[in-house]
């Protein structure tokens, strides 16, 4: 059993594709196929079901996958320990993150982390919070960064940043309001631009409004949009209002492009989390990143 065989198997499962696995591993598709065939031959079992267009794990494949990940992580841990001893820690950290932390927080985290480990590189992929969690539970990811909790006994959440959603309107709205608070009934008369289902922002809004007896479907929603930047631009142009992360809209508030309010008796504070499958061992480099996040301050 060779490490390149294990890496090929893990990459095919993660990407659900032989060609994408080959691209990720900087090799050819026939090489990936041969690696997995040789692995199956040595184990005397079939790991992947190739009978349909969608590649799926067999029962044996599901059982072996966690051991394959563990073996690669043990190898990486040994390499990391030697590198750390020789003061030359390097490697790539692949992070799948939801929108707000990806766009507005991770750059600062990476900057500070690289002061300690300057030879480390990062590969960042965007998914909404629900998709990150589903990918971790499905075995395609071991960890990620999200803005909402979805309960599972397999998951451990480590909060590293406190955020708050604020009500954002065009700058010329509500000129007579002297404080930063609006009555919650104000929401029922506005045109809303919201994130799509699956985002942590959308989930928090739904939960907190429901606690106040307001169904999100009772709002006048004119658009569902993935991009925070597009939502901010639409607000600036007077097309509607939205709830946006405070850190994401700071510049627009300072430049007086949008106006921010809080809603009376509506708690929209939340945390961002590093989440991982606690039944799988993280690579030592990712473990170092997790430990760094625990003590990191914005």
Low-confidence stretches: none
Do you know the CATH topology of the domain at 161-269? D-Maltodextrin-Binding Protein, domain 2
Tally of contiguous helical segments:
10
- Helical residue percent band: 40-55%
What is Rg?
A: 23 Å
Could you state the CATH homologous superfamily of the domain at 161-269? Periplasmic binding protein-like II
CATH level-two architecture of the domain at 161-269: 3-Layer(aba) Sandwich
Distance between the termini: 44 Å
Estimate what percentage of residues fall within beta strands: 15-25%
The number of E-state strands comes to: 12
Helices and strands, with pairings:
Elements (H helix, E strand, L loop, with lengths): L2 H13 L2 H8 L3 H15 L4 E2 L6 E2 L1 H27 L4 E8 L1 H18 L2 E8 L2 H9 L5 E4 L8 E16 L10 E2 L8 E5 L4 H12 L8 E6 L2 H9 L5 E4 L4 H5 L3 E6 L5 E9 L6 H12 L3
Helix pairs in contact: 1-2, 1-3, 1-4, 2-3
């Amino acid at each position: 059993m060779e490490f390149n065989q294990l890496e090929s198997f893990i990459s095919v499962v993660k990407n659900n594709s032989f060609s994408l696995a080959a691209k990720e591993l900087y090799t050819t598709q026939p090489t990936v196929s041969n690696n997995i065939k040789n692995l199956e031959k040595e184990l005397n079992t079939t790991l992947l079901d190739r009978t349909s267009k969608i590649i799926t794990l067999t029962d044996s494949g599901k059982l072996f996958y966690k051991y394959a990940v563990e073996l690669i992580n043990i190898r990486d841990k040994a390499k990391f320990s030697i590198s750390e001893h020789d003061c030359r820690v390097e490697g790539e950290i692949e992070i799948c993150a939801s929108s707000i932390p990806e766009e507005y927080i991770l750059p600062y985290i990476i900057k500070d982390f690289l002061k300690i480990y300057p030879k480390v590189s990062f590969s960042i992929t965007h998914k909404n919070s629900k998709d990150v969690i589903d990918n971790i539970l499905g075995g395609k990811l071991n960890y990620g960064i999200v803005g909402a909790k979805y309960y599972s006994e397999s998951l451990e959440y480590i909060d590293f940043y406190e955020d708050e959603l604020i009500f954002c309107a065009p700058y010329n709205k509500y000129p007579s309001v002297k404080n930063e608070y609006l009555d919650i009934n104000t929401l029922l008369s506005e045109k809303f631009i919201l994130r799509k289902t699956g985002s942590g922002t959308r989930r928090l809004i739904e939960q907190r409004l429901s606690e106040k007896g307001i169904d999100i479907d009772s709002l006048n929603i004119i658009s569902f949009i993935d991009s925070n930047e597009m939502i901010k631009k639409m607000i600036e142009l007077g097309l509607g209002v939205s709830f946006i992360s405070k850190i994401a809209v700071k510049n627009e508030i300072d430049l007086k492009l949008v106006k921010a309010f809080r809603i009376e008796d509506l708690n929209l504070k939340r945390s961002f989390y590093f989440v991982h499958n606690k039944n799988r061992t993280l690579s030592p480099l990712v473990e170092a990143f997790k430990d760094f996040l625990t003590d990191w301050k914005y």
